[in-house]
Design a protein that fits this description.
This protein folds into 3 domains: 1-29; 33-94, Cytochrome C biogenesis protein (Helicase, Ruva Protein, domain 3); 114-167, no CATH class. Helix content is 70%, strand content 0%. The protein has helices spanning 3-27, 35-41, 58-72, 77-88, 104-144, 150-167. α2 (35-41) runs antiparallel to α3 (58-72). The termini are far apart.
Length: 168
């Protein structure tokens, strides 16, 4: 295939995708329709782990129809959400409310990340201080006598003898 053919196929596919997306948005009744959006936002009390819109159960279909009927009757989205929450409780929410015990779901991860960062900082500071002490201790010994000198050799022999005596 030539580059032009690939480009043309991509443009046709993009136009079809945009057309299908526009038709799907019109199915919901326009921007003023909140019933279909609410069915996508709420979790199904009949299919754990699925949204109300994705649940294949007949009861979920009845609940979606009830939501759309409430919308058609003129009730507000907030009223319908409050009614559903009163009927099903926290099960219907995708995320816990940020009050009471549900607040822990938002606060605990932040505290865990902060504690982990503090531990990393403490660890790195200790490692840096340990490396600085080791460098400071090694510097005077290295400066005392050059490595190939007789003084350094005799010092090493004395240190070796002392260590061997300690092991016997």
């Amino acid at each position: 295939m030539t580059t032009r053919a690939i480009l043309a196929a991509g443009l046709v596919a993009g136009a079809l995708a945009l057309g299908a997306g526009g038709a799907r948005a019109d199915e919901g009744g326009g921007a003023a329709s909140w019933g279909y959006g609410l069915a996508n936002e709420l979790m199904s009390p009949y299919c754990p782990g699925r949204t109300l819109n994705d649940c294949p159960s007949g009861q979920a279909l009845e609940l979606k129809s009830w939501i759309l009927a409430q919308e058609s009757a003129g009730r507000s989205q907030a009223e319908v959400e409050a009614d559903l929450y009163a009927r099903y409780g926290d099960v219907i929410l995708q995320a816990p409310k940020a009050t009471g015990f549900g607040l822990a779901a938002y606060v605990l991860p932040v505290l865990a990340v902060a504690a982990g960062a503090a531990l990393v900082v403490v660890f790195l500071r200790r490692q840096g201080a340990r490396a600085a002490r080791a460098t400071a201790l090694a510097a005077p010994a290295a400066a005392a006598a050059p490595v190939g000198s007789p003084v350094a050799a005799s010092a090493l022999e004395a240190e070796l003898e002392a260590e061997l005596e300690g092991r016997r």
